[in-house]
Specification:
By secondary structure, the protein is an alpha/beta fold. Helices cover 37% and strands 23% of the residues. Helix 4 packs across helix 5, helix 10 runs antiparallel to helix 17 and helix 16 packs across helix 20. Bound molecules: fructose -6-phosphate (F6R). It is an enzyme of class 2 (transferase).
């Protein structure tokens, strides 16, 4: 989390950095700041609040000329969000200025040492410790900035992407990464630095992504020099051509990124199976799976590691893999898995799911699984992300950039990829008949148009949102494949509207949550025809007799639930195993509309950040 951006070249740095910060604001948005070199000194402005707050005050505070600068949008880890803890941070001499994304875990011991050596600190941040450590090395070792950064980072435990410059050498920015992403855009005699490529897309399509434990000296009018942090050895830069375009990262007429991304799902799902699902030939082709078929087929079990919404997609996949391919599956929160000494062997196949490909806990879980000899397969959205690179093989979702903090299209495209894998394995293992297999392929191909149809219920979902927007609690119930959808619906509502919501397996309701039900409690029940329909109808009756308000997600033409429920939202019929791809959509829309009606910041909900690169 935290977005970092920098520029060095021949243009005014300020507008480039400001626009870049707006694009990166999804990464963190509790404070923001910019430092510019104006030709003789550093001009710095920072504030608690959003990038818009910074923009409002910055031009009154400082002159904004200069062709070198760095900027930061923060998601607080050490120190509360306030003006002082905002980045950039100066070193004690005022010569160096730094921005940082990540956590320096041993900052307290480093700080004590520096205090003993006469350094003082204004903020509570680990970042201010790092910039002074670099300054201290420069003085002690009489070195230039680049070498001092390398020596200092060897004393640091933690994760970082940093950009730092020295006002006495205003022709270079030094950057480094360990565990947090950092891209360098290569223009004509100009360079851009950012947490992802979005800030510099309109200037260049050429980028170098730093690898972990690498640093780079980015010099005006010169090339980028990359070195290993550990031993200072040189690394040959690897330049990539970016496939992203500007349209993909803009709102395109929608009020919010979240709504745009909900509406993009038919296209995103189609893009995800395009070229892989060949219904006419009755084949599924995914090179990551084909190339490693033996690993998949010989695996004793699949362990899925993920966090948040990606974990919910993992839970859906448990049903799919077990049901279709008869492979035992365990779905683990990456944050728990990494610390509980799990039993993993070479016969395990681990699937790591992550939209961003940068989630620290998922990355750590992957490393642990690999160290025990397991084969790790990644399902990521962001191409070239840390998780995509750390895994042994993988399959991308082709959702396109997801910018709204609440994950939507990532979820449905993850389920799409996992379904394709399960079907391919089921075919290879002979656990599915050829007619059933074909039926699945045909139905999967129809999903984008079915999602399109569900989106047509948007206005109706909005009327339901208006009825329930002021309640304090929501319950979401589902069974089988739709139990994880209930969890996901509840998560969406919590994170963007701040209404307390719980997801439960419908039959578990009577073991506790039923006590919550009264006439004020809305309960969203996923009750599609395939699956455990009759059982869910019984659950609905139990709710009804306790006066709960029922919002049913039902199959088109359903009568039984319609008679019992207060509202029903219809979704087209599909196979039970594919139903999460359609039942999820109304739940996303419901939470979106409630949050908008409550005036919440839908794309940037409080306390959250899009990619959680810290523990
Ligand atoms: C919820 C949400 C988070 C993420 C979680 C994992 O809407 O966005 O729960 O799903 O932080 O992120 P990734 O998938 O990037 O690893």
């Amino acid at each position: 989390m935290c977005g970092i951006v920098g520029y060095i070249g021949h243009r005014e740095a300020y507008p480039i950095i400001l626009k870049g910060l707006k694009r990166l604001e999804y990464r963190g948005y509790d404070s923001a700041g910019i430092a510019l070199y104006d030709g003789s000194d550093i001009k710095l402005s920072k504030t608690k609040g959003k990038v818009a707050d910074l923009e409002a005050r910055l031009e009154k505070e400082i002159t904004t000329n200069g062709t070198l600068g760095i900027g930061h949008t923060r998601w607080a880890t050490h120190g509360v969000p306030n003006d002082i803890n905002s980045h950039p941070h100066y070193s004690n001499s005022g010569n160096l200025v730094i921005i940082h994304n990540g956590i320096i875990e041993n900052y307290e011991s480093l700080k004590k040492e520096l205090i003993k050596r006469g350094y003082t600190f204004k903020s509570d941040t680990d970042t201010e410790v790092l910039v002074n450590l670099i300054e201290d090395v420069m003085k002690k070792e009489n070195t230039k900035l680049g070498k001092a950064v390398q020596i200092a980072l060897n004393q640091v435990v933690g994760a970082y992407a940093i950009a730092v410059f020295d006002k006495n050498k205003p022709n270079e920015i030094v950057v480094a990464r360990l565990g947090s992403p950092l891209a360098i855009g290569i223009g004509d005699d100009e360079f851009f630095i950012a947490s992802d490529a979005s800030p510099f897309l309109e200037y260049t399509k050429n980028a170098i992504y730093l690898e972990d434990e690498e640093m780079a000296i980015v010099r005006r009018d010169k090339e980028v020099k990359i070195r290993k942090i550990k031993d200072d050895s040189p690394v040959a830069p690897y330049m990539q051509e970016l496939q992203l375009n500007l349209e993909q990262i803009e709102k395109g007429g929608y009020d919010h990124f979240m709504l745009k991304e909900i509406y993009e799902q038919p296209r995103a799902i189609l893009d995800t199976f395009r070229g892989r699902l060949r219904t006419n030939e009755a084949i599924i082709k995914m090179s990551g799976v084909e190339d490693n078929m033996k690993k998949f087929l010989n695996a004793d079990r699949i362990i899925v590691v993920a966090c948040g919404t990606s974990w919910h997609a993992g839970l859906v996949s448990e049903y799919i893999f077990e049901d279709l391919a008869r492979i035992p599956v365990e779905v683990e929160y990456a944050s728990e898995f990494r610390y509980r000494n799990p039993v993993i062997t070479e016969k395990d196949l681990v699937i790591a799911i992550s939209q961003s490909g940068e989630t620290a806990d998922t990355l750590a879980a992957i490393k642990l699984a690999k160290s025990k000899g397991a084969f790790v397969f990644g399902v990521c959205n962001v191409v070239g992300s840390s998780i995509a690179r750390e895994t042994d093989a993988g399959a991308y979702t082709h959702a396109g950039p997801e910018i709204g903090v609440a994950s939507t299209k990532a979820f449905t495209t993850q389920i799409t990829v996992l379904t394709l894998i399960a079907l391919r394995l089921a075919r290879a293992k002979g656990t599915i008949s050829s007619s059933d297999y074909r039926h699945h392929l045909i139905e999967l191909e129809l999903i984008p148009s079915k999602v399109e149809k569900v989106l047509k219920s948007d206005d109706y979902v909005k009327t339901i949102a208006n009825i329930y927007k002021d309640v304090k609690n929501f319950l979401y119930l589902g069974r089988g494949y739709n139990f994880p959808v209930a969890l996901e619906g509840a998560l969406k509502l919590k994170e963007i509207s701040y209404i307390h919501a719980e997801g439960y397996p419908a039959a578990e309701m009577k073991h506790g949550p039923i006590a919550l039900i009264d006439e004020n409690m809305p309960i969203v029940v996923i009750a599609t025809k395939k699956g455990h329909y009759d059982k869910v109808v019984s659950n609905i009756q139990e709710i009804k007799s306790r006066k709960g308000k029922i919002i049913g997600i039902v199959t088109e033409g359903d009568q039984q639930v319609k008679e019992l429920a207060d509202h029903v939202i219809e979704v087209p019929e599909t196979l039970e195993s594919l139903s999460p791809l359609v039942t999820t959509i109304p739940l996303q829309l419901l939470s979106y509309h409630i949050a908008v009606m409550l005036n919440k910041n839908v794309d940037q909900p409080r306390n959250l950040a899009k990619s959680v690169t810290v523990e």
